[in-house]
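User: For my dataset I need records formatted as: sequence, then structure tokens, nothing else. Please produce one.
Assistant:
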Amino acid sequence: MSKPKVLILCTGNSCRSHMAEGILRNAAGDLFEVFSAGSKPAGYVHPKAIAVMQEIGIDISEHTSKHLDQYLEAGIDTIVTVCGNASDACPVFPGNVTRYHWGFEDPAHATGTDEEITNAFRTIRDQIKNTFEAYASGYREAKQLSLTEVKQRF
């Protein structure tokens, strides 16, 4: 049986969506196929996103910025948008899929010293990590409960 496909969307597909993809794949790659894309891809993955993910042992250096169009016919089961403010142009994905919106501020807009900007990336990374690991844990628990119920019936 194939794993459910989760697509994480953001506008530029350069920071938040890649961090979320790496974290969810790390936490639940056995449960999901995980992808990320954007409605207006930046064409690169932000170097600071790569660096702060490496700090927690997750390598996203081979990720590429992709347009959501390439997933329109991919059989996506769940869409998660991670754009922050309501004013962001969060992409819309057509079709009958489960949708979540977990907004995070865009660390690429952080200002200050190099260390302050890096800390902004760390803060968003940690918020994303907490959210997506909780999602993975809840999904895993629900799946286990469903299996237990099925076993009890037979």
